[in-house]
């Protein structure tokens, strides 16, 4: 069963940082042919944005962070934003927050 984790082309999410000031993250979707959906993460509103890594989702809705900038709590905030964004667009009431 494919869980809905689809964003439009781009979204911005506010994350509460554990170290340093809170930040707005730009999330850019990238769908691969293999069924893996990934989202590239950058600082928002910057002329030369910093790269925060990416979050990948499989067809079951499990996700993994590929990067070294965000803490686990920050990764969860971004993943939950992506999942909730997809669910709100399809009116699905499944939490879907999983790890692999």
Task: Explain what the structure shows.
The protein is of the alpha+beta class and 100 residues long. It has one helix at 72-90; strands spanning 10-15, 23-31, 37-43, 51-57, 62-66, 98-99. Strands 1-2-3-4-5-6 form a 6-stranded mixed β-sheet, with helices on one face. Strand 1 (10-15) and strand 2 (23-31) form a beta hairpin. The chain is globular, with a radius of gyration of 13 Å. The chain starts with 9 loop residues before the first strand and ends with a strand. The model is unreliable at 1-5 and 91-100 (pLDDT under 50).
Secondary structure: elements and pairs:
Elements: E1 10-15, E2 23-31, E3 37-43, E4 51-57, E5 62-66, H1 72-90, E6 98-99
Parallel strand pairs: 5-6
Antiparallel strand pairs: 1-2, 2-3, 3-4, 4-5
């Amino acid at each position: 069963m494919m869980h809905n984790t689809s964003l439009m082309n781009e979204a911005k999410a506010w994350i509460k940082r554990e170290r340093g000031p809170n930040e707005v993250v730009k999330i850019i979707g990238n769908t691969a042919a293999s069924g893996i959906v990934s989202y590239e993460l950058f600082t928002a509103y910057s002329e030369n944005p910093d790269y925060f890594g990416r979050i990948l989702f499989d067809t079951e809705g499990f996700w993994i962070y590929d990067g070294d900038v965000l803490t686990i709590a920050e990764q969860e905030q971004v993943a939950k934003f992506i999942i909730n964004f997809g669910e709100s667009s399809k009116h699905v009431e499944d939490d879907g927050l999983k790890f692999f």
